[in-house]
């Protein structure tokens, strides 16, 4: 997401219980001449606790991070997260509200700025789809448990 609403920011939903937001993230600090990176935020009732972030590096390459929906939502109001993902609100150029996302791995780290208003609105749509506290009712606990146990 950019620090302002971008014409390509758009949310999509479908009847199968998914909601996506395609937008542009800005690197922080901004490398000279760099326009940002497209990111697809995805939410699905099939994994109701998580948000999938696909950083679209090139047409053929993407880097995927899966973060907790509640962590991302909390980060719209205050510093949230520990370890490899931290999220916090800030003010961007011109006083525009922005959301910073810091992603870390053993291979490196990156900090991005997103349009806080656009991402907050999209998160509100995910909570309208699956209210907070009701996520567990959507999980297939028997299948999940079976997938975690060793084969018999």
TrEMBL record:
<keyword id="KW-0717">Septation</keyword>
<dbReference type="GO" id="GO:0030435">
    <property type="term" value="P:sporulation resulting in formation of a cellular spore"/>
</dbReference>
<dbReference type="Pfam" id="PF04686">
    <property type="entry name" value="SsgA"/>
</dbReference>
<protein>
    <submittedName>
        <fullName>Regulator</fullName>
    </submittedName>
</protein>
<dbReference type="InterPro" id="IPR006776">
    <property type="entry name" value="SsgB"/>
</dbReference>
<comment type="similarity">
    <text>Belongs to the SsgA family.</text>
</comment>
<dbReference type="GO" id="GO:0000917">
    <property type="term" value="P:division septum assembly"/>
</dbReference>
<keyword id="KW-0749">Sporulation</keyword>
<dbReference type="InterPro" id="IPR038658">
    <property type="entry name" value="SsgB_sf"/>
</dbReference>
<dbReference type="GO" id="GO:0030428">
    <property type="term" value="C:cell septum"/>
</dbReference>
<keyword id="KW-0131">Cell cycle</keyword>
<keyword id="KW-0132">Cell division</keyword>
């Amino acid at each position: 997401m950019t620090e302002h609403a971008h014409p390509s920011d758009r949310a999509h939903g479908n009847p199968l219980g998914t909601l996506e937001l395609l937008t542009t993230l800005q690197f922080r600090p901004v490398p000279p001449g760099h326009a940002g990176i497209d990111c697809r935020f995805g939410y699905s009732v099939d994994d109701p606790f998580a948000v999938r972030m696909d950083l679209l590096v090139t047409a053929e390459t993407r880097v995927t991070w899966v973060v907790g929906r509640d962590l991302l939502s909390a980060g719209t109001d205050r510093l949230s997260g520990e370890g490899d993902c931290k999220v916090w609100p800030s003010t961007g150029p011109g006083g525009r509200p922005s959301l910073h996302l810091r992603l870390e791995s053993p291979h490196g780290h990156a900090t991005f700025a997103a349009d806080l208003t656009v991402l907050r609105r999209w998160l509100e749509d995910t909570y309208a789809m699956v209210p907070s506290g009701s996520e567990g009712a959507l999980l297939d606990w028997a299948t999940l448990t079976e997938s975690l146990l060793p084969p018999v």
